[in-house]
Every structure is written in structure tokens, then in C-alpha cells.
Amino acid sequence: DPEMLRTLELLLSRKGYKVRCWSHPAVVLSKLQKKRELCDVILTDYSMPSINGLEFAEMVRKLNPGIRLVLMSGKEEEKFSWYLKNGFLDGFILKTDIGEHIDEVL
């Protein structure tokens, strides 16, 4: 969602984070293949073009297991609790809570 990307970029930049946003998971994966230390944290949506956020997280982990992975979704955390408990994801945030709680998960 281009509007969500712009909003996140603005919000995180104002909080002092260096932000890069991409609209398709294939772009991020391609950049990670070329430069595995591309970033420290990836904030990804569960709903994306071609794959979901969990599938994307698995691919990222294979390229760089040290990157912090935070999933955002409109669905409640219970759906993703196994992935959080088992270290597959490092954090979770509801889209409705991003403005208030983003610092806590990053």
C-alpha cells in the first residue's frame, strides 16, 4: 500500500530512523542478496504482493539471520504468537498501534 509506505517513512524519519521503503518483497530480497548487511531491522506487512510476511521473513532469515524482523498486520497477535515465541519474528505490531507503539518493537 503506497499510502502506508509514505506514512511509515514519514513517521519513522521524524523519530530519527534512517528509512528505506520498497513496495514489493522481491526488491528487498534482491537487495539483500547483493548486500546482506543492507539494514538492521525490517518492518514488513503480513499482506504483500506474491507472498505473505511470514514467507518473506523466512527468506530474509536465510539471507541474513541477524536482521531484526518485525511483522505488522491488521490481525491480532495471537495468529503470530508461535512465530514470536520461537524466534522466527522479533516483534509484532498491529497497524492501528503503529503511531503509538512503533518504538517498542523496533
Which structural class should the secondary elements be placed in?
alpha/beta
What percentage of residues falls in helices of 4 or more residues? 40-55%
SS strand fraction? 5-15%
Q: Can you give the mean pLDDT?
A: 93
Taken from the alpha-carbon principal axes, the silhouette is globular
Q: Which sequence of strands runs across the widest sheet?
A: 1-2-3
Number of helices: 5
| Measured distance between first and last alpha carbons | 21 Å
- The tally of beta strands, per DSSP, is 3
Radius of gyration: 13 Å
Helix and strand pattern: HHEHEHEH
Largest sheet: 3 strands, parallel
Ranges where pLDDT stays below 50 over 5 or more residues in a row are none
Write structural notes for this entry.
The protein is an alpha/beta fold and 106 residues long. Helices cover 44% and strands 14% of the residues. The chain is built from five helices and three strands, in the order H-H-E-H-E-H-E-H. The chain has helices spanning 2-14, 25-34, 53-63, 81-85, 98-105; strands at 41-45, 68-73, 91-94. A three-stranded parallel β-sheet has the order 1-2-3, with helices on both faces. Strand 2, helix 4 (81-85) and strand 3 form a beta-alpha-beta unit. Helix 2 (25-34) packs parallel to helix 3. The radius of gyration is 13 Å and the shape is globular. It starts with a helix and ends with a helix.
